[in-house]
């Protein structure tokens, strides 16, 4: 079972380390972690995706709420949220596979953001599942490098009051 934690924290050095340490000490798994400032520069938002049984997921929420630097913790299931992930993929291409790669990009709504004689960098922003599907379609080509963000998520509008 997976759960998404949207955690508002004080934007200070060491806060990320404290939160990650909580997961490490308790042997909780972090599937994904993304951190960024909010509109208030003194506050950051951590989006943490974790998996485990019901008891573990409830324990994570309780432990996060105990941290002094944590302002607010919201938890929600994947089905209740809009989730996005960004991936940049640098690949080698040649005359024979270039058209197939471009067709895959078109189908998945990915953008070619950099191009040279034999390499291209592709960008895709989509759900974590569709990002993985896209990466699977590229397994037939020579992938040079991948940079992938963690999941960002917000509650669906129909879920908020």
UniProtKB/TrEMBL annotation:
InterPro entries: Acetalactate_synth_ssu, Acetolactate_synth/TF_NikR_C, Acetolactate_synth_ssu_C, ACT-like_dom_sf, ACT_dom, AHAS_ACT, AHAS_small-like_ACT
Reactions listed under catalytic activity: 2 pyruvate + H(+) = (2S)-2-acetolactate + CO2
Taxonomic classification: Bacteria, Bacillati, Bacillota, Clostridia, Lachnospirales
Gene Ontology terms: biological process: isoleucine biosynthetic process; L-valine biosynthetic process
Molecular function via GO: acetolactate synthase activity; acetolactate synthase regulator activity
Organism of origin: [Clostridium] aminophilum
Source organism superkingdom: Bacteria
E.C. number: 2.2.1.6
Reported function: Catalyzes the conversion of 2 pyruvate molecules into acetolactate in the first common step of the biosynthetic pathway of the branched-amino acids such as leucine, isoleucine, and valine.
UniProt protein name: Acetolactate synthase small subunit
Domain ACT: 4-78
Pathway linked to the protein: Amino-acid biosynthesis; L-isoleucine biosynthesis; L-isoleucine from 2-oxobutanoate: step 1/4; Amino-acid biosynthesis; L-valine biosynthesis; L-valine from pyruvate: step 1/4
């Amino acid at each position: 079972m997976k759960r998404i934690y949207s955690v508002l924290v004080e934007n200070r050095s060491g806060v990320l380390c404290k939160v990650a340490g909580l997961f490490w000490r308790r042997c909780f798994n972090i599937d994904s972690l993304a951190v960024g400032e909010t509109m208030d520069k003194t506050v950051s938002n951590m989006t943490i995706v974790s998996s485990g049984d019901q008891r573990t997921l409830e324990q994570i929420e309780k432990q996060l709420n105990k941290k002094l630097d944590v302002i607010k913790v919201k938890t929600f299931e994947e089905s209740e949220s809009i989730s996005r992930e960004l991936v940049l993929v640098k690949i080698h291409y040649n005359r024979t596979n270039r058209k197939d790669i471009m067709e895959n990009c078109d189908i998945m709504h990915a953008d070619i953001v950099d191009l040279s004689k034999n390499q291209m960098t592709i960008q895709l922003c989509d759900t974590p599942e569709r990002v993985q599907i896209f990466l699977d379609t590229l397994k037939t080509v020579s992938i040079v490098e991948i940079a992938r963000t963690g999941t960002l998520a917000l509650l669906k509008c129909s879920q908020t009051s």
